Amino acid sequence: EVQLVESGGGLVEPGGSLRLSCAAAGFTFSSHNMVWVRQSPGKGLEWVSFISGSSASIYYADSVRGRFTISRDNAKNSVFLQLHSLRAEDTALYYCARDGPGSTTYFDYWGQGTQVTVSS
Amino acid sequence: SYDLTQPSSVSVSPGQTATITCSADGLGDKYVCWYQQKPGQSPLLVIYQDTKRPSGIPERFSGSTSGNTASLTISGTQTMDEADYYCLAWDINAALFGGGTKLTVL
Predict the structure, then answer these.
(1) In this model, does residue A104 exceed pLDDT 80?
(2) Which residue of B has its CA nearest to A110?
């Protein structure tokens, strides 16, 4: 059974930093690209970042480029999102999701999310 | 920037057919997938690569495309289908979600 479990969220002041983690199980982790998607309270879904299975390809949404860094550790079946220079508008539930097998066109499994709140 | 346009809301009576659209310039050249999200839950993939249905998704869910518009159709809509629905497509090195459609079954 595919499982994705996010952690690392919390309350942080504007300008602060956080490191989100996503632990994966139930599939060959290194064979799948991974993404982070966020959802602000009462709002829609927003794609944040993508990392390929080998970490060779990394992409970011314009809204986070230069402030967030995605990485992965295939030996530990984990993907990470380092958040810097946080703003109030980064407040959201952050999901990690698995890219579908063989093609970067859909995300087939999602975690339950970890809440990030940016407030003074 | 590239925007996927969805209606903000769609209403349907139980047993009827609901259709949710997703449109954008050039969307016909891209694969589209669809997610269902119920309150307090993570998104659930219901259609991928325009028309494919993941294992476990009821047959009443179907996807189609015409030109630059993708559609999610729910035939024989049930009250349990009431949820928010989002389309997703990839542009150049970026994934984009539509704004979401609230489906009301009443």
Answers:
(1) no
(2) B42
> Which residues in chain B are closer than 8 Å to A52, comparing Cβ atoms?
none
State how far Cα B15 lies from the chain centre. Answer: 18
> Is B96 an interface residue toward A (CB < 8 Å)?
yes
Q: What is the pLDDT of residues A15-58, one digit of tens each?
A: 999 999 999 999 999 999 999 999 999 999 999 999 999 999 99
Interface of A with B in 23-82 (CB under 8 A): 35, 37, 44-47, 50, 59, 61-62
Backbone angles phi, psi at A81, to 5 degrees: -135, 115
- Confidence at residue A57, expressed as pLDDT on a 0 to 100 scale: 95
How far apart CA A100 and CA A27 sit, in angstroms, is 12
Q: Predicted confidence band at B1 (pLDDT cuts at 50, 70, 90)?
A: low
Both tokens of residue A95?
A: 């999901």
When pLDDT is averaged across residues B42-69 and rounded to a whole number, the result is 97
Average pLDDT across chain A, whole number: 96
Evaluate whether A73 touches A54 at the Cβ level (below 8 Å): no
pLDDT of A101 strictly over 90? no
Any chain A CB within 8 A of the CB of B92? no
Question: Which residues in chain B belong to E strands, given as ranges?
Answer: 9-12, 18-23, 32-37, 44-47, 61-66, 69-74, 83-91, 94-97, 101-105
Phi, psi (degrees; rounded to nearest 5) at B70 = -105, 150
Q: And the tokens for A91?
A: 């407040």
Contact with chain A for residue B27, Cβ under 8 A: no
